Amino acid sequence: MDALIHLFVGLHIIGIAALLGGFLTQMKAMGQGTARFVPGMLHGALTMLVTGVVLVGLNQADDHHVNTIKIGIKLALLIVILGLVYVKRDEEKIDKNVFGLVGALTMANVFIAVLWT
Asked: Is the pTM of this model over 0.90?
């Protein structure tokens, strides 16, 4: 079971990398007002959602303690991120504030995962 959990943690990190990497590659464009949500950002957020749900299930099945408050907050942030990216994915230019919010929420999600023990 541990190998399976580690596999999904790796996939979860790949999802985070796709979402945050997509954001970081658009930082210069955000400064110019021409940033857009690239497909990798949507795919990364969806990967995070699916692997996160699987990880919660695997950890509960393996009788590990799951902090439901932490998971609930992370899920809420991810749903906001997914909603914004999905709705605005076809727009050529995204407002700086909306684009920055997605980056800030993504980084908040990472820091909650790492620092909340």
From this structure: yes
